[in-house]
Amino acid sequence: MNKIILLISFILLACLQKDKPFFDFDEVYHYQTTENESRLYSERNPDTPQLEKDEYKKITYSSNYPKSLNDNWFLERVEKYFPKKQKIDNRKLNELSEIFTERKEKKTIFSACVPIYRNIFIFKKNGKVVGISKICFGCLEEHTIGTRRNTENFGSHDEYEKLKKIIQ
């Protein structure tokens, strides 16, 4: 009988466990580049040096870059190639924490397109980068580093729509 009560207790605890945020942060910066700005770095644009095209592609097209929060090259290039920068209002940080949270529900929407990460979120705590999330709203894909949480189900709770509302 004690084993049954113990088992039921574990099951109830597992069900009551709250989803856990990806990051502990106190400020967030959103960087964005538009489709028109992306054309500057197109292979068809002869006016842009090849080095800039390659750097831009590495940031916007790579689904596994950056790998480290301490990648200064990445952070410097985001400042250079993503001209729209905004600090997210502190009143929206709790909402962002809810959006960037580990989910148990499986993601049911999958994309067949190649993501172009035109939105980048830099999460900081006491001035130090604690997380980076690259977002492609067109494909509903993300690349997130700096968390030990499972980010695989990001998007299962309309996170992309909620995120769009915050940055508009």
Short précis:
This is Lipoprotein. This protein is of the alpha+beta class and 168 residues long.
What distance lies between the first and last C-alpha atoms, to the nearest angstrom?
A: 56 Å
Mean pLDDT: 86
Structural class computed from helices and strand pairing: alpha+beta
How would a textbook summarize the main sheet? 5 strands, antiparallel
Element-level helix/strand string: HEHHHEHEEEH
Widest sheet: strand ordering: 2-1-3-4-5
Shape type: globular
What is the helix content? 25-40%
- Over all CA atoms, what is the radius of gyration? 19 Å
Q: What's the tally of helices?
A: 6
Binned strand content: 15-25%
Strand segment tally: 5
Taken together, the total number of domains comes to: 1
Query: Residue ranges: pLDDT <50 for 5 or more in a row?
Result: 9-17
Write the layout of secondary structure elements.
Layout: H1 2-16, E1 27-32, H2 35-39, H3 50-61, H4 72-81, E2 84-87, H5 93-99, E3 119-125, E4 128-136, E5 141-145, H6 159-167
Antiparallel strand pairs: 1-2, 1-3, 3-4, 4-5
Describe it.
This is Lipoprotein. By secondary structure, the chain is of the alpha+beta class. It contains six helices and five strands; from the N terminus they run αβαααβαβββα. Strands 2-1-3-4-5 form a five-stranded antiparallel β-sheet, with no helix packed on it. 35% of the residues lie in helices and 18% in strands. It has one domain (19-167). The protein has helices spanning 2-16, 35-39, 50-61, 72-81, 93-99, 159-167; strands at residues 27-32, 84-87, 119-125, 128-136, 141-145. Residues 9-17 have low confidence and may be disordered. Strand 3 and strand 4 form a beta hairpin. The N and C termini lie far apart (56 Å).
